[in-house]
Design goal:
Number of strands of chain B: 10
Largest sheet of chain A: 2 strands, antiparallel
Number of strands of chain A: 4
Number of domains of chain A: 2
CATH class of the largest domain in chain B: Alpha Beta
CATH topology of the largest domain in chain A: ABC transporter involved in vitamin B12 uptake, BtuC
Order of helices and strands of chain B: EEEHEEHEHHHHEHEHEEHH
Number of helices of chain B: 10
Number of domains of chain B: 2
Number of helices of chain A: 14
Structural class of chain B: alpha/beta
Largest sheet of chain B: 6 strands, mixed
Oligomer: heterodimer
Helix content of chain B: 25-40%
Chain lengths: ~325, ~260
């Protein structure tokens, strides 16, 4: 790792560790909210950005994770049991959702996953006996950690921060393993990948399943963060917003979700000064970003590098042409 | 999932045996009963005019299409119904007519990903080091193909010729028994054609990566084919017109009239 990167990571870690106690309650809550969405979009980035599968059903897993944790805690079970259960259930359902991806791709897959999200959302809304319907589930507790209460916003923030770091490191390890290369190969050229012995079926299913597990954990953390859940945050619109976060940050860039979730969660807060115009400003910013940076914010260094390489190649060609004339 | 190769060849057995292969598209008989064998260590060329059935034959051998009739055996095992994945796991490497490198990966990673699925099980690969223990093998090929200076660059940033070399090297990373090369000289600068021929001869005769592969080569560049191949099959209208050494093919009157010209 370059010295600059180590320094940047160190500064970021120090800010995230030291700054929150100096923030107001809402600021701490917002940071936790941002990190929950970082975890969720890290999973979606694996599915969309690394493995190239167009999924518009991520909010369904996010919601499933939230409901699993909320219902288990309401049943008297521990949050620490609920969180892995949420991940496991989402992993299994993610594999099932991956099957359409073996048959359809691109926009057709996006619609298939969108249909899945709608179906899950309808279950959340209509099955009142289980989910409370539109009344939702309230009074979701925050957990204890070895006897230490995480009830306060600051304490819970540190739990979410720790979870974000752990999930980030796990993903980094996965991406650096042969699996990471297999996912990238699947995205860039599935026919070539298969001809090299890469089991594209298995990796497609795994990309959905692991992405879904990330959303499940994020959903579980979300339930205890907001302490009241109802179906609205898990509708198709949220899936589209999560997809937007991945695209804005930079699909296939490890830190893309960090920036993307900031744009999706924190930027709207900063734009509150615009009052009724805030959605217009936010929408316009996204449109401009997509025009100039279709590969996301983190593609800026790559674009600068590509331009430099093109300039150098052009200069070399010109020099060679001059030499030929002389 | 185990990735070990299932069949070991017995002495004297051909690596590839194609018997009575037929494939039709509607009323058009693209391949009409083709039979041939490729021996261990042999470089076998397939030539013929456009529409002679070479690509259909190739796609059948690579599991991309299922033939209507006939049998394909790899090291004595019937692989007629197998797909590209299973064939690769059984020791078949290939290149495509067009460039098929992974543009956003480095050259070294392109080579590693080309063989990593042959290492251990899928589960064990999740915890394996990034190079899957293939670093030395990748470095040997990088040196052999003289692409050391671009080894850490993204493959998509290389020139066409350099990408072509990476593409060919990838086919050899898994130490295959059989490599099918689909027009390895297509779009390549004439100065590089000789280099590719030399590399393929090296890999065939004195493989630094420790495996003696057989090749099947489709190519339109006649000088390249005649120089490289031990035997050549000429296809015309989906059928075999002749099989023989380059000298025999050059002197075959039928072939001269139908394909090579005077």
């Amino acid at each position: 790792m370059k010295k600059f990167q180590i320094l940047a990571w160190g500064i970021a870690a120090a800010i995230l560790m030291i700054a929150p106690p100096f923030l107001k309650n809402y600021g701490i809550y917002l940071l936790s909210y941002w990190m929950v969405f970082i975890i969720a979009t890290m999973g979606l980035n694996l599915t969309v950005g690394y493995a190239g599968q167009k999924s518009l059903g991520h909010a369904a897993f996010f919601g499933m994770g939230a409901y699993v944790v909320a219902l288990m805690m309401k049943a008297g079970l521990s949050f620490w049991l609920g969180l892995p259960a949420a991940a496991l259930i989402c992993f299994v359902v993610g594999i099932i959702l991956g099957f359409p991806a073996l048959r359809v791709q691109t926009i057709y897959l996006a619609f298939a996953t969108l249909g899945f999200n709608t179906a899950v959302w309808l279950v959340m809304r209509n099955e009142e006996w289980l989910t409370g319907g539109t009344y939702g589930i309230n009074g979701i507790a925050r957990p204890n950690f070895f006897g230490m209460s995480l009830e306060g916003n600051l304490a819970y923030y540190y739990l979410v921060l720790a979870a974000t770091v752990i999930m980030g490191l796990l993903l980094l390890g996965l991406l650096r393993s042969p699996w990471g290369k297999a996912f990238t190969a699947l995205r860039d050229n599935p026919i070539r990948a298969e001809s090299l012995g890469i089991n594209t079926r298995s990796y497609t299913l795994l990309s959905f399943a692991i992405g879904a597990a990330y959303a499940g954990i994020a959903g579980g953390l979300f339930a205890s963060l907001v302490q009241f859940i109802e179906p609205a945050p898990f509708a198709v619109g949220s899936s589209i917003m999560m997809y937007l976060m991945v695209v804005v940050g930079g699909p296939g860039y490890f830190l893309g979700p960090v920036l993307g979730a900031a744009v999706g969660v924190i930027l709207p807060e900063w734009l509150r000064f615009a009052q009724a115009w805030y959605l217009f400003v936010f929408g316009s910013a996204v449109v401009l970003l997509m025009i100039w940076l279709p590969d996301g914010l983190l593609s800026i260094p790559d674009r600068i590098r590509a331009k430099r390489l093109a300039r150098e190649a052009s200069a070399a060609r010109a020099a060679s042409a001059m030499g030929a004339k002389v | 999932m185990s990735t070990t190769r299932h069949h070991e060849r017995t002495a004297g057995q051909p690596v590839l045996k194609v018997t009575g292969l037929k494939k039709a598209y509607g009323a058009i008989q693209a391949v009409g009963g083709v039979s041939f064998q490729v021996q261990p260590g042999e470089i076998f060329g397939v030539i013929g005019p456009n529409g002679s059935g070479k690509t259909t034959l190739f796609n059948s051998m690579l599991g991309q299409i299922t033939p209507d009739e006939g049998k394909i055996e790899l090291n004595g095992e019937d692989v007629t119904q197998l797909g590209p994945l299973e064939l690769n796991r059984r020791g078949v490497g290939r290149t495509f007519q067009t460039l098929q490198v992974f543009g956003k990966m480095s050259v070294r990673d392109n080579l590693i990903v080309a063989a990593q699925e042959h290492q251990g099980s899928m589960f064990s690969r999740m915890f394996a080091p990034g190079d899957s223990g293939l670093g030395k093998r990748a470095d040997a090929l990088i040196d052999q193909f003289r692409i050391r200076h671009v080894a850490d660059k993204k493959a998509g940033e290389l020139s066409y010729g350099q990408q072509k070399l990476v593409d060919i090297a990838m086919a050899f990373m898994s130490q295959p028994d059989l490599v099918l090369l689909d027009e390895p000289c297509a779009g390549v600068n004439p100065s590089l054609v000789g280099g590719i021929s030399t590399l393929l001869k090296q890999l065939n005769q004195n493989p630094q990566i420790g495996k003696h592969s057989s090749f099947v080569v489709i190519e339109h560049n006649m000088d390249f084919v005649m120089d490289l191949c031990h035997r050549i099959m000429v296809m015309v209208e989906g059928r075999v017109m002749a099989i023989g050494t380059p000298a025999e093919i050059r002197s075959n009157k039928q072939v001269l009239e139908a394909y090579l010209g005077s």
